[in-house]
Amino acid sequence: MRERLERRLARLEDRTRRIESDLRRPGDRDWAERATERQNDEVLEQLGDAEVAEIELIRAALTRLDEGRFGVCRRCDAEIDAPRLDALPFADTCIGCAD
Fold this sequence. Notes:
The chain is mostly helical. It has helices at about 1-25, 30-65, 80-85, 95-99. The protein is about 70% helix and about 0% strand.
């Protein structure tokens, strides 16, 4: 699981860097083109925000792995089912507490 989380983290960090680079590029001089670029930038910002949030979740999961708490619900201390961790490897609650 650690390897899977670290691979996903590396991909997200790389994409986030590329998004940030794209957002810093100078704008086009043409007004109509700038309007289109601004719309694209808004989409990139939303994607970047979602990826930053997932990065934080993955880092927290890696910390739980280091501390021996990975796979244990933070609310009820029950074991988090393997299918849930397979779908959401950064899950920190069991399905019952997630509802």
